[in-house]
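Allow me, if you will, to draw on your knowledge of protein folds for a short while. A protein sequence and the structure tokens that stand for its backbone fold form the material at issue. I would ask you to consider whether the tokens describe a fold that such a sequence might reasonably adopt. Thank you for your consideration; the sequence and its tokens are set out here:
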Amino acid sequence: MAKITLSELRHSYLPNPKGAEDYALKMIDLDWEDGGAYALLGPSGCGKSTLLNIISGLLHPSEGRILFDGRDVTDLPPDQRNIAQVFQFPVIYDTMTVRDNLAFPLRNRGVDEGRVAQRVAEIAAMLEVEEMLDTRAAHLSPDNKQKISMGRGLVRDDVNVVMFDEPLTVIDPHLKWKLRSKLKELHQRVRATMIYVTHDQTEALTFADQVVVMQEGEIVQIGTPVELFERPQHTFVGHFIGSPGMNVLPAVEQGGAVLFEGHKLALEGKLSGQGGDLRVGIRPEYVSLADTGLPATVRKVSDVGRHAVVEAMVGDTPVKAITSGALPPQGEAVHLAFRPDQTRAYRDGWIATEVDT
């Protein structure tokens, strides 16, 4: 396995890019440590697949370098990068048995048959497909086909990195959690460097130790699932991660204080910076119905089982709160309390509160 370094990487699909808007990938500097589990998370069109194709060698970057364990591989073709890739749609041979599908990457490299049999048995046991080894792949269910596709990526023990490109997109929702759990288990057992590309926050947060969140070709935050949830560095991260996402509320600055709909808010720390589009971010989990606070009117209540989401209007702005207590009826006057240590300001999207450490 390998440590992967992306150094001053940029890419444009235009022959003569002039400004930042011409780049599908803006300046990226990133290190992925050997043996880690990582995710690239973001909406369609944010640059995830472009970055994956650059790492795999299918695309040459306009600028910058890619290094594996310090070795520059920027100009190497895919077959010389020692990468295994698992795609959205299972890449297996339907006419072959499961055993032969798993063995194919090793036989293709001239590995001794004794070693092939050993590795196939090991991977089949990890995937819990031993009983299917002599079954033709054409007869497998979609989730088992994707299992075998994953196994083909893991069967080689000489790869630098295993990359997963939206591997659960075509899997039925009730089976996704099984494959997510299996993939996490496989990583813990083989300790291969794995990069998982997805637009699904649940997949990213349950698989990865570190998540790279992308928007419009730019990395807006890198962190653990807890860090991304607890302290989003950008309003996009707060909005994209969480269900429902973070409340992002219009605000004004007045004498060093931050006001929302005319009400002064207590923030997690000192307001930093000047000018720009000022917003306040707070997750619905940290907004509560209270006896005192911001006066509001209930617009909608959604009971989602373990808790309810109350949407209330503070002036002209909707604010979501998560509650498990008694639910107010639509139209009722309530008060909303914001937890100060989870209330933060953002300027032009980026966090603008400083916390003493």
